[in-house]
Amino acid sequence: MMDIIYTTYPLDMVLEEKDKKEQFNFKNINYQGIDMQVEPLGWNKFRVIRLYSTDPKDYLNNDLQPGSIISL
To answer: How would you classify the pairing of strands 69-71 and 45-51?
Structure first.
């Protein structure tokens, strides 16, 4: 897949930001029936980055707030 980028910024600056974003090791998982993006921290431990839920109740769960640590 090829991306076309229209910008007034220098190409080096744009590609530098793209490289930084690709350094993150995020994964998409399903935890307790909720799809979410997490960052692996170690053996079966993950930091919640964002939820992909359409249920507002899931966002009120303190255990699943961004930054929370979950175990599988």
So the answer is: antiparallel
**Cα 38 from chain centroid (whole Å):** 6
Say what the pLDDT of residue 28 is.
94
String of DSSP letters for 10-33:
-HHHHHHHHHHHHT---EEEEETT
Separation of CA 27 from chain center: 7
Contacts for 28 with CB less than 8 Å, ≥ 6 apart: 35, 36, 37, 38, 52
Segments of the chain scoring below 70 in pLDDT:
1-3, 17-24
